[in-house]
């Protein structure tokens, strides 16, 4: 194997993973090149690269997925290697081959290994031959309903349907009884065709209480392959990871060794080199494990492994890609302590995890020993609808599970991501859950407990205190501007201190906050709840308040009529000032359907004049890679359609109207 020194790397990706790769490039004396779309021109990673090249466009297809643009940018900048990050072109075999043909090093596995693992059915065939345990199921070419129905009976229920070409958790369906099967097959086929351009399905036994345990593998181009132990990624929503940790709380040394061996076997079966991950589903009831898939790239959660092994996985990727042999042997890998990663997503957990867009007014993280923050955003960043909703990764490592959980909880309660809905408080609630702390959970953990977890993140009092803080910020600001005005008639002061009232709107409820000021003390009444408050200090967005005997700090950011508040005790709260003279709201057009958020129109399933039944698909819209199906809420006839396929629309746009 000929060695080629890598001197300049282009990262064909964006946000936190681009920053992550640049960090290692600079420590290795390698020049870094960023590419960026129009939507990303102000993103922090662009500034961090030595050189950044504008590739225009907004959607992935017209930017980070456009192979010609990426290859041209590499040539223009003199990059001799391309790091694909994760997502986008990272698991695209034709791109890996194209790089090779252009004389550019692709920092990843061979195109052959990528394409062998691209089909879940093919991947499982290969693994079965290599004696890696595979879940019983059907993955044949005969995709007729009759065949699928017959095979389902053999597998038994519950079973899982997956798109053979699937990924990112999309297109996965649980079927609990034969009566549900036909409908599930039809909708899975439609979804698979729409998302992956391939409607082939596979079916397998559903593991009722399963854990997602994956092994990091690493190979070089000299035939060596090792594993870097496991990451447990069982806490998921929508079949997508939310928290990842290592070591797994359930693995015995013997089981770890057995699974590690199976992971290496899987890599060997592929002649695998560079970084890869072998995913397994682990059955809580039997302790058996089964191969799920190989992700042929660096994973989102690779920092967990870096923290416990002390290795720089990006450095290893660059070394292996330049033809060097692996610098570590299996016996050198001795993980220490415990590490966890929490994914910060711009999404609203209380609203079905709907992704959120908008400006981040303030992003800050505390200083904590053992904390690593890999982020793609900063204060002022605008989160667009075009890309993934993951904003940052909060990684904490230390000597053991409970110490690290305590530090993660501390970090989450102090960090601020104000301006748009996000999952910080949900993450905090998960880490505080006793079963989570004990390691007793399965992949259904979030789905089963979401309501209780969310309820634990906010109380009536925490909302009241947030509104008191907002009110006192306003009072302080009026007070300081008043003292700046010389010669105010004394009578003005008296009327100013009359009982006051201000109203806010939070979670579909109105709150009237009444207060009276006497001698430095405010008496607040909200509904039948009473509070006594004092301002200890107040400096624009930061206030130190004493409320009912508890003194603590509040951040209050006002953006138009929106308030974003945060305190360590109460977390963040979002609410609106109710205007004293509200503008009359435009009447809802009856029978109209509107977009819940900024989106792209993926597909329009109906035309004007069509008769539809309740539940029929009207339109598919997409935002941040999550597709939303707009279905008819009642029977009727489509009167008019106001949007076109492919167009980008704002939240609240009327999509179509039904006849009354
Ligand atoms: P990991 O396995 O590394 O934790 P995921 O499986 O959640 O990550 O997703 C892997 C990568 O692929 C992520 O960057 C994610 O943004 C991206 N991804 C997930 N779903 C899709 C999709 N439908 N289309 C394109 N990229 C996706
Ligand atoms: P993707 O390519 O979308 O990541 P995977 O096959 O890796 O698809 O599965 C995603 C998730 O679905 C897993 O992490 C796990 O939570 C769940 N899952 C997959 N297969 C099974 C199964 N047979 N039984 C139970 N859960 C499963
Ligand atoms: Mg997977």
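-> sequence recovered:
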């Amino acid at each position: 194997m000929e060695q080629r020194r890598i001197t300049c790397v282009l990262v064909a990706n964006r946000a936190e993973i681009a920053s992550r790769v640049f960090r290692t490039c600079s420590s290795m004396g390698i020049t870094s090149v960023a590419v960026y779309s129009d939507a990303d021109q102000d993103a922090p990673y662009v500034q961090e690269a030595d050189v950044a090249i504008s590739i225009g466009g907004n959607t992935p297809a017209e930017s980070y997925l456009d192979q010609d643009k990426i290859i041209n940018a590499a040539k223009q900048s003199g990059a001799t290697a391309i790091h694909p990050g994760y997502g986008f072109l990272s698991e695209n075999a034709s791109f890996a081959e194209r790089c090779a043909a252009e004389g550019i090093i692709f920092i990843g596995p061979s195109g052959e290994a990528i394409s062998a693992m691209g089909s879940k059915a093919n991947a499982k065939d290969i693994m079965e031959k290599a004696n890696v345990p595979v879940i019983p199921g059907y993955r044949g070419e005969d995709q007729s309903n009759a065949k699928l129905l017959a095979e389902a009976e053999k597998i038994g229920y519950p079973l899982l349907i997956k798109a053979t070409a699937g990924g990112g958790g999309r297109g996965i369906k649980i079927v609990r009884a034969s009566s549900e099967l036909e409908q599930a097959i039809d909708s899975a086929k439609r979804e698979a065709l729409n998302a992956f351009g391939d409607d082939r399905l596979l079916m397998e036994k559903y593991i009722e209480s399963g854990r997602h345990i994956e092994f990091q593998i690493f190979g070089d181009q000299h035939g060596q392959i090792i594993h870097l132990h496991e990451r447990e990624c069982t806490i998921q929503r929508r079949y997508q990871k939310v928290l990842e940790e290592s070591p797994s709380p359930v693995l015995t040394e013997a089981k770890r060794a057995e699974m590690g061996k199976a992971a290496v076997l899987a890599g060997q079966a592929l002649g695998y080199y560079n970084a890869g991950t072998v995913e397994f589903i682990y059955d809580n009831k039997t302790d058996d494990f089964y191969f799920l898939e190989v992700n042929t790239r660096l994973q989102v959660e690779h920092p967990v492994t870096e923290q416990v092994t002390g290795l720089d996985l990006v450095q290893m990727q660059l070394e292996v890609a330049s033809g060097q042999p692996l610098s570590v042997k299996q016996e050198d890998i001795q993980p220490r302590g415990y590490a966890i990663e929490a994914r910060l997503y711009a999404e609203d957990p209380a609203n079905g995890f709907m992704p959120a867009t908008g400006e981040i007014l303030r992003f800050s993280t505390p200083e904590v020993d053992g904390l690593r923050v890999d982020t793609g955003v900063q204060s002022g960043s605008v989160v667009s609808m075009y890309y993934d909703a993951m904003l940052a990764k909060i990684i904490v490592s230390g000597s053991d599970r409970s110490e690290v959980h305590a530090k993660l909880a501390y970090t989450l309660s102090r960090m601020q991501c104000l301006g748009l809905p996000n999952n910080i408080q949900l993450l905090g609630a998960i880490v505080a859950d006793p079963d989570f702390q004990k390691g007793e959970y399965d992949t259904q953990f979030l789905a089963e407990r979401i309501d209780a977890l969310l309820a634990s993140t906010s109380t009536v009092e925490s909302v009241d205190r947030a509104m008191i803080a907002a009110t006192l910020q306003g009072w302080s600001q009026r007070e300081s501007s008043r003292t700046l005005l010389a010669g105010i008639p004394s009578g003005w002061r008296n009327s100013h201190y009359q009982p006051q009232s201000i109203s806010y709107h939070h979670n579909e409820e109105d709150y009237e906050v009444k207060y009276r000021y006497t001698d430095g003390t405010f008496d607040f009444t909200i509904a039948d709840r009473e509070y006594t408050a004092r301002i200890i200090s107040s400096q624009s967005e930061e206030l130190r308040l004493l409320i009912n005997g508890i003194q603590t700090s509040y951040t209050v950011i006002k953006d138009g009529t929106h308030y974003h508040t945060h305190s360590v005790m109460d977390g963040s709260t979002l609410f609106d000032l109710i205007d004293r003279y509200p503008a009359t709201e435009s009447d809802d057009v009856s029978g109209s359907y509107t977009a819940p958020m900024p989106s792209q129109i993926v597909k329009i399933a109906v035309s004007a004049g069509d008769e539809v039944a309740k539940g029929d698909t009207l339109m598919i819209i997409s935002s941040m890679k999550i597709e939303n199906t707009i279905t008819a809420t009642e029977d009727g006839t489509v009167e008019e359609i106001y949007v076109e396929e492919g167009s980008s629309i704002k939240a609240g746009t009327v999509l179509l109207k039904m006849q009354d």
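The chain has a mean pLDDT of 94.
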